[in-house]
Amino acid sequence: MTTDFVPWPEEDAARYRAAGYWRGETSSRFLERVTGLSGERTALVDDRVRLTYRDLFEQSRRVAGGLRALGVGAGDKVLVQLPNRAEFVVLWFALQHLGAVPVHTQPGHRHAEMIHLARLTEAVAYVVPDVRSRFDHRELASLVRANVPSLRHVIVVGDPGGHIAFEDLLAPAPVPVEDLARPGDVALLLLSGGTTGAPKLIPRTHDDYLCNARLAAEACRLGDDAVYLAVLTIGFNFTFGCPGLLGVLGVGGTVVLADNPDPSYCFGLLERERVTITAINPLLTPLWLDEALATDADLSSLRVLQIGGARLPGDLARQVAATFGGTLQQVFGMAEGLLCTTGLDEAPEVIATTQGRPVAEADEVRVVDEHGAEVPGGAVGELLTKGPYTLRGYYRADEHNATAFTDGFYRTGDLVRRLPSGHLVVVGRRKEQINRGGEKFAAPEVEGHLEAHPLVRAAALLPAPHPYLGERSVAFIVPAGTGAPTREDLLTHLAARGLAAYKTVDEVRLLEEMPSTPVGKADKKALARLLV
Ligand code: J2J
């Protein structure tokens, strides 16, 4: 039996409770409480609807009734693959009322990822849109269900096409709030950026995740006049809880869900809704900058522009600060927990050149060398961390957990410098991950699929510098026979294997032989030297 959730040691948990980090509230009670405070205020806006807190509370309890009638109950896992629409949030809280656990997947995931996640979690239901960007999610869901016996229900927002329609879940009467989960239970499963073969999931508890959202809201000084524009996908930790949706609902503000990150569409929403805070990644930043210079839209309501997810070059940061009226906030976060932000009053150069400081005093940070010894101040080392909202173990991943943690500290795989002020500067990474402007994936996962191609004997995927993506991916390929695969061959192959399209190969380089380490793995240090 593998471990679903590795709890914090009781000693640490007691400390986090005593210091007020963990407040003993579930997400269901959280929504009830904020509805009590802000009932008639607008909680949620998307392209079709505007919901008050009371609407959201009622609808989520009615959908909970519909889900209960399907047999969904406490502890059940439900795969959620919805775009930035109100239904995501209604469903999320409906699951919370039942003590069930949403699994946040990526909109781009295809059958390779979805079958894996469904099997790993033994999910009972899968919730999808009908058709997005000409892709029929209902067919994907049918395929996943046919492969995963636990998956009993497919629920569709839009035309159900033979599955269950989301709107039919709206039971006539809302279910009462009943405490079917405890504050220390897992409230949601987030997706990890990945470093190994198969995607990993991160269990976040009610106590820890609500703490995370509250601290992030404080770092952004949010009040009940906050209007947050959700640009990045809503299931992403940044958008959902840093402060994102939960941080804004916690203060009685309004969340506006953007259906896509296109800047001209988003600036229209920004102007119309008088948005005060939003969050983007470095991949979008140049597009947003160009549009900000060209647009007639009034962007003057914006107070905080958060940018995070990948390294933001200093020059780009300075341009952002000069172009947008509000304050730039660099955000260095991870679905695993630790959240660092620059302060709103900090000197412009600190904001342009650092990734900020941890949001909780109780966040413990170590910067260590290859042997685990702390490096002198200002030197580069791997960031290790533990704290009140950082995981102690991945979901059902005992083997991986044995090496991903040391002494309770999570090994982030990020290489950082810590300045005397405590600010962190992210300078690189030790983990085998590709980060294309904030969209990340595990190199070994894609290598495994590449090596299944008949023309590939060995494959190794490495990041190479790219001016605005930060990184692009280069596949070193040793061909299996006389013919060599082209990039197009490999992309067609990856798509046919059911891999999300963002896990891509930007360039192929052919090798006669794979340089290898003494233990027979591809020698990525030697390959990296070929890239410079
Ligand atoms: C360099 N690398 C960064 C940054 C993340 C807020 C913001 C981002 C994420 C996120 C998040 C970086 N500069 N500013 O969850 O709440 C890289 C690091 C990190 C990994 C985590 C949030 N911000 N990174 O990106 O789980 O390598 O979370 O370990 O997707 O992204 O990725 P993810």
Task: Give a summary of the structure in a few sentences.
By secondary structure, this protein is of the alpha/beta class.
Could you explain the architecture of this structure?
This protein has 532 residues and is of the alpha/beta class. Among the domains are: 26-182, 3-Layer(aba) Sandwich (Rossmann fold); 433-531, ANL, C-terminal domain (GMP Synthetase, Chain A, domain 3). It has 17 helices and 28 strands. Strands 2-1-13-12-14-15-16-17-18 form a nine-stranded mixed β-sheet, with helices on both faces. Strand 26 (456-466) and strand 27 form a beta hairpin. Helix 3 (53-69) packs across helix 4 (86-98). Ligand J2J is lined by residues 193, 237-238, 242, 308-311, 330-335, 339, 355, 412, 414, 426, 429, 435, 440. Ligand J2J binds next to helix 8, strand 16, strand 22 and strand 23.
Itemize the secondary structure elements and their pairings.
Blueprint: H1 10-18, H2 27-38, E1 42-45, E2 50-52, H3 53-69, E3 77-80, H4 86-98, E4 101-104, H5 111-121, E5 125-129, E6 131-132, E7 135-136, H6 137-147, E8 153-157, E9 164-165, E10 186-191, E11 201-205, H7 206-219, E12 227-230, H8 237-241, H9 244-250, E13 254-257, H10 263-273, E14 277-280, H11 285-294, E15 304-308, H12 314-323, E16 327-334, E17 337-341, H13 348-353, E18 357-358, E19 364-368, E20 380-386, H14 398-404, E21 405-406, E22 409-418, E23 424-429, E24 433-436, E25 439-442, H15 443-450, E26 456-466, E27 470-479, H16 487-496, E28 507-510, H17 524-531
Parallel strand pairs: 1-13, 3-4, 3-5, 5-8, 8-9, 12-13, 12-14, 14-15, 15-16, 27-28
Antiparallel strand pairs: 1-2, 6-7, 10-11, 16-17, 17-18, 19-20, 20-22, 21-22, 22-23, 24-25, 26-27
Helix pairs in contact: 2-4, 3-4, 5-6, 7-9, 11-12
Bound molecules: ligand J2J.
